[in-house]
Amino acid sequence: MARPSAPGPLVLVQDLVNTLDLETGADTLATEEGRAAFGLREADVAAARALREALRAACLAHAGHGAPAEVAALGTLLAQAPLVTTVDPADGSARLAPADPDSLTARVAAAVARGSLDGSWQRLKVCEDETCRWAYYDRSPAGRGRWCSMEVCGARAKMRAYRARRAGE
Q: Which pTM was predicted?
């Protein structure tokens, strides 16, 4: 199913969270091709998975769910990835960049920092469906999206709610 990507550098975060398909159990970080997409070696996979799950927890919190301790783990991980301010000599504009551009954690930290500045970070959420938890960018006008796809996860949730109401009658 085609889902729209997050804007700008947040697509890196969205892609990392979505390396694990909870419905099938498929983890693309377990494959050479999946690791190559993030510039990872096999030895980096455990750390990348920890980062992925911390990002998932933060994105779940953006949707109004999640445990504070799980979200705090992301802050701990990102604190280990220093950023530097770079200035474009052509126009004098400044931006945060990873001190180590080869570090996935540093690239994620830079993406989160940029998204925090422009307000897009809070709109990166994970699906409310416990069997899905796919990262999506909430493009709804009010920012209250709950599912990665209304056609799939939203429809399932509405059907479960309908059946529960019918069972209670």
A: 0.86
